[in-house]
């Protein structure tokens, strides 16, 4: 079954709501009108019955009853729709009066004001007993309510007609209001339908958006911004991959073409193969790094759960790099200790990338500091080194793939493919941590904060 559109649903709900309210109001008005006429008729009968009783109570003998006829006729016979009968205990008629248009004995025929032919009239009756000279007399009264019933039937017809008409009008009005109110949703649909790789700059204007849709529009615009940023990064990433792979491939082709220009000795061929092997190893490392990052992006990197002495892990890394540092007169200062749970191999790789960068940019004779701090359940590690400050505009992008602060790509250097910090960032995130870089006044620091696992 085909689902109704949102416009149709809102129109239907608006029509039902309006119809319900008007129907309840019409029903209440009809009941109040009927109650009003019933009260009028009841009061008329009660007043006439009370007046007749008061008049008959003053009679001491039925022989005087005839003297009361003019007063009874004036009191009870003056109502045009009222019929009155007074009978004794033997059902003998003592007095009878009827209005000019009423008859208790006959049926009334003819057309009503509304054009409906009435075969019988409708009466409301009331009776009472009064004692006259010790004998009970029965007073019977009946009022003609045919006019009231005709009016109520006519009123009900008008109310039903008005209800149907208002339901149709409210349906049309609800459709127009819903269509106008849902215009921002159509704009979202048009923008979403027009989104492509070449039109990610499109945004939905928020100036004319109603408050109920502000969050939706803002979330959609934010999604487009994220898509645009991700697409730009992906395009740059693809270009960087092509650039990085082109260099070793070009080197391989050049070496091979040079060797093949003429016959060479066995040593020359071996030297060329060793050179090609270095380029192939560089490509293999780059491909491994890219596969690692691809797994990290898809949540496939699951660290092992082992207890790690962070001080011992850092000391092991410093011992490995100590020879390189001694050649340049660089000192390492390690302070603090803490324990955390994680994958030692992955953390070793992440910290090794940071120490490699620190050694590369630290001037000869400088000092690299590693500070470990345990604050509550969190563990903080800071790796800082002296050197030229990194411009602030580059700091947010340091962990992007293939990104370098120095626009010169240093082609041919196998240790500077531009993936080290991106891999470090993925490893830290896999360990429920976060990493930031600050650089000012000739001091650059990478600060890592490990959160407890929930």
Automatic annotation (TrEMBL):
Domain of life: Bacteria
Protein topology in the membrane: Multi-pass membrane protein
EC code: 2.7.13.3
Ranges for domain Histidine kinase: 240-454
Any single GO CC term annotated in Swiss-Prot or TrEMBL for this entry: plasma membrane
GO MF term list: ATP binding; phosphorelay sensor kinase activity
Keyword list, A-Z: ATP-binding, Cell inner membrane, Cell membrane, Kinase, Membrane, Nucleotide-binding, Phosphoprotein, Transferase, Transmembrane, Transmembrane helix, Two-component regulatory system
This protein's record includes keyword Lipid biosynthesis: no
Limits of the HAMP domain: 179-232
SUPFAM superfamilies hit by this protein: ATPase domain of HSP90 chaperone/DNA topoisomerase II/histidine kinase, HAMP domain-like, Homodimeric domain of signal transducing histidine kinase
CDD domains: HAMP (cd06225), HisKA (cd00082)
Entry's localization field: Cell inner membrane
Reactions performed catalytically: ATP + protein L-histidine = ADP + protein N-phospho-L-histidine
Transmembrane segments annotated in the record for this chain: 12-30, 158-178
Pfam family, one: HATPase_c
Function: Member of a two-component regulatory system.
Protein name in UniProt: Sensor protein
Species: Stutzerimonas zhaodongensis
């Amino acid at each position: 079954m085909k689902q109704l559109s949102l416009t149709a649903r809102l129109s239907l709900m608006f029509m039902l709501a309006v119809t319900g309210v008007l129907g309840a109001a019409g029903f209440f008005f009809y009941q109040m009108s009927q109650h009003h006429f019933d009260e009028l008729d009841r009061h008329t009968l009660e007043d006439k019955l009370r007046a007749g009783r008061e008049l008959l109570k003053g009679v001491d003998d039925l022989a005087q009853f005839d003297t009361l006829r003019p007063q009874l006729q004036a009191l009870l016979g003056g109502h045009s729709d009222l019929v009155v009968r007074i009978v004794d205990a033997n059902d003998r008629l003592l007095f009878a009066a009827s209005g000019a248009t009423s008859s208790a004995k006959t049926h009334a025929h003819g057309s009503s004001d509304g054009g409906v032919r009435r075969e019988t009239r409708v009466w409301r009756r009331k009776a009472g007993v009064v004692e006259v000279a010790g004998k009970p007399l029965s007073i019977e009264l009946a009022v003609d309510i045919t006019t009231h019933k005709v009016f109520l039937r006519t009123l009900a017809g008008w109310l039903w007609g008005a209800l149907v008409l208002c339901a149709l009008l409210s349906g049309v009005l609800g459709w127009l209001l819903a269509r106008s109110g849902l215009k921002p949703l159509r704009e979202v649909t048009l923008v979403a339908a027009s989104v492509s790789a070449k039109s990610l700059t499109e945004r939905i204007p928020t100036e004319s958006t109603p408050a109920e849709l502000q969050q939706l529009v803002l979330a959609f615009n934010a999604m487009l911004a994220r898509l645009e940023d991700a697409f730009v990064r992906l395009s740059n990433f693809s270009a960087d991959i092509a650039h990085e792979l082109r260099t070793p491939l070009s080197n391989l082709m050049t070496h091979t073409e040079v060797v093949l220009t003429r016959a060479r000795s066995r040593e020359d061929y071996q030297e060329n193969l060793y050179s090609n092997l270095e380029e192939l190893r560089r490509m293999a490392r780059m491909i491994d790094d890219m596969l690692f990052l691809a797994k990290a992006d898809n949540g496939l990197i699951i660290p092992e759960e082992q207890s790690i002495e962070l001080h011992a892990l850092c000391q092991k890394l410093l011992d490995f790099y100590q020879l390189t540092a001694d050649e340049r007169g660089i000192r390492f200062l390690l302070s603090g200790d803490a324990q955390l749970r994680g994958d030692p191999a992955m953390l070793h790789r992440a910290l090794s990338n940071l120490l490699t960068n620190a050694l590369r940019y630290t001037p000869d004779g400088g000092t690299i500091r590693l500070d470990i701090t345990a604050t509550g359940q969190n563990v903080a590690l800071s790796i800082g080194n002296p050197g030229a400050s990194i411009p602030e505009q580059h700091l947010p992008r340091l962990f992007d793939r293939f990104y370098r602060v120095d626009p010169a790509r240093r082609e041919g250097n196998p240790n500077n493919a531009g993936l080290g910090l991106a891999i470090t960032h993925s490893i830290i995130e896999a360990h429920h941590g976060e990493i930031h870089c600050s650089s000012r006044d000739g001091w650059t620091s990478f600060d890592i904060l490990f959160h407890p696992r929930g």
